[in-house]
Amino acid sequence: MKRFTARIGVALATTLALTTLAACGGNGGGSSSQSASDTVTIALDADAAPTGYDPLLYSQGQYTFFGALYDALFVLDTEGKAQPELVEKFSNSPDNLKTTLTLRDGVTFTDGKKLDSTVVKANLDRRSDKDLVAYGSLAPGGASEITDVAAPDPKTVVITWKAPQATPENNLADTAGAIIGPDGIANPDSLLTKPDGSGAYTLNTGKTTKASVYTLDKQSDDRNAERWAYDHIVVKVILDAQSLANAVISGQTDVAGILKPSVVELVQSRAGTVKVGGTIVGFPVWDKQGKTNPAFAKPEVRLALLRGIDDATIVKTLHQGSKGTKQLFPSDATGFDPSLNQTYSYDPAAAKQLLAKAGYPNGFSFEITIAGQPTEDLIAVQKQWSAIGVTMKVKTATSTDQVFAATNTEPLGFGPFAVGSNPAGFVAGVVYGGFMNQQKAKDPKIDAALGKSLGTTGADQEAALKDLNAALTNGGWYIPIYEDFTYTGYNKTKVAAPSYAGTNNYLVLSSLKPAS
């Protein structure tokens, strides 16, 4: 059976329409009746499991859904810090090249089998599978590459890293650390229709229709049962922005996200909202070597495009409440440097000078492929770049495959990217070691700063993150427009305010509690 894959995960969730599978039927799951008091209903603006129930096919943000079905080695709490879950304790070797995990006792998977070190090893040994988005930075060639996983006894796992990892728990949190049961690992195709996890909930297949509604029933005897407030979680898929807003306003759903900017004010006037920053909207530079367009081999060209964007005007006219920015790191992230916004501030004359220095005094043209029709942001930037002599020709994709292919055939992409509270992890897994760098371009300054960011802690790590942000910005690896906020609506009479995973733009589902 062919497995469908979400190759780029939630980083482009609002840009691409992911392929979904046909509805699954059958009986099973919990048989208990549901009442309003023991059930929380969550509406999402995209399918929670478009490619089935293998959590490793998805990026970190999908753990809002999968965290109820699967435990992970570590999970992010509401402060964005990685906490042990399937791990009882862990330690690093003095050189930070080996991490030893001691596993918890008494963990049982949906297939009835127990957690031990061989199960964890079997999971992590799938890291060379390029379809597994969650393992992007752990895979061969990744910035947090694992070279070996050993299981010396049933409770102990020893992970060997290619380069020092001072905070290994961050590499193994949420989807990247999700552990699938032995049966699911032995037959990954079985995960197309049923999960095999050790989470507090099981999928009620009799009350689930793929791409429409998912019903999860709590196992009362689960070791983490008390951590979850509700016996049942119902997840609805509502793609239309207005319908999603109406659902939370009317009480049809208790939580709704992600809210589109056009409906945030309405939901705020009739219900509650929570928000988090950390989403950077802009242009990932697919081509840093000039393979698709020779102009993009020049850092001066990429920086000219950065200086040619009037981010302040775009924010003022189109995105009030957002923040214009000239760097990939969010404003609340360690490593953010306000001076970079000054260094690369909007200056058409300076942009033209950079183009001339690169050998393009008369500008140049290029093509960009997007999903759907051009947004107001894209049209605004198109006009601003035209003023410095650069013509951006926008093509609308006829399929998601065409958008994926553009990462290899065109110089730029466009969309919102959830960098979150662990920018080094995002750089390692997406920008430098993932789909944003299909050409495997290298930059010694990025290599050095990323290695130090992953291999140190404290003040040394903070300095390294600042260097990493500067290297990415000075090299023109990403051309941002603004930092946006993610909004989630909630029914204030039914639930307390939900909590995000720190500055990451996804919720910690276990934090949902009834309104007091």
UniProtKB/TrEMBL annotation:
- Keywords annotated in UniProt: Signal
As given in the record, the signal peptide range reads 1-22
From what organism does this protein derive? Cryptosporangium minutisporangium
InterPro entries in the record? Peptide/Ni-bd (IPR030678), SBP_5 (IPR039424), SBP_5_dom (IPR000914)
Q: Which PANTHER family match?
A: PERIPLASMIC BINDING COMPONENT OF ABC TRANSPORTER
Signal in keyword set: yes
| Name the UniProt record assigns to this protein | Solute-binding protein family 5 domain-containing protein
Q: Where is the Solute-binding protein family domain?
A: 82-402
Keyword Signal annotated: yes
